[in-house]
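Input record (Table S2, row 241):
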Amino acid sequence: MATVRVSALALPLLVLAGACSRDASQPAPQTAASEPVATTKAAPLASASAAPASSGEAPAAAPGPTERVPDIEYVPTPENVVDKMLAVAALKKDDVLYDLGCGDGRIVVTAAKRLGVKAKGFDVDPVRVAESRANVKKAGVEHLVTIEQKDIFEVDLSPASVVTLYLLPELNVRLVPQLEKLKPGSRIVSHDFDMAGVTYENVWTVLAKDHRETTKDREHYVYLWKTPLKKVSAGKAGAER
Ligand SMILES: C[S@@+](CC[C@H](N)C(=O)[O-])C[C@H]1O[C@@H](n2cnc3c(N)ncnc32)[C@H](O)[C@@H]1O
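Output record (S-adenosylmethionine complex):
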């Protein structure tokens, strides 16, 4: 495991330098207030966010009877955090990357365009699916990338060798039974959120602005796990986190 130990005093300096890595035995970072939040069944925020802001136009349609409400609203990963996620995944040409909750498709498009890997994005929000497909076309990577409108909890992950996530801690944990079906040596990379009960290989900090923020950078976390997953036994969980 390529873990770099960082003392508490050295950490802020490394953070200011742009990125650092943290030992897996250190306490997990706290999450920031501007991160994505869970949606409620009554408020399909991802669709609403794409609706016109004001003035007499009809509000975004509520999901139809068969449409799944997103478990978390759409918040894009900043480009330099995408770069870090792809770098720590150590992508090779024969990898297959799945982004679960792909938003505007930026992770799958960047992976295909820059590294030539096959990638698949999944999102339940039809607005995001349309946006992703348009971005795939615009980038000219239709031969490498497909976008599916699908609930991530129904996706068979066995064809993937890299899985990227920007969800919520509890959603990461809910994905564990699916992630356990990945081939040995697969990498899972999560923006900002840990996966309780599974020991990560490493976590890095990247400074970036959030999409609505114009002035201030904040620390974004990039977690890496490898398969087979290292489950934390119940008795040790408290000590390791
Ligand atoms: C925080 S955004 C991340 C977008 C993108 N992966 C990125 O990092 O820029 C989460 C995305 O997950 C989608 N989502 C939420 N719950 C989902 C579910 N159960 N199945 C599929 N997509 C879902 C949302 O519509 C949203 O686009």
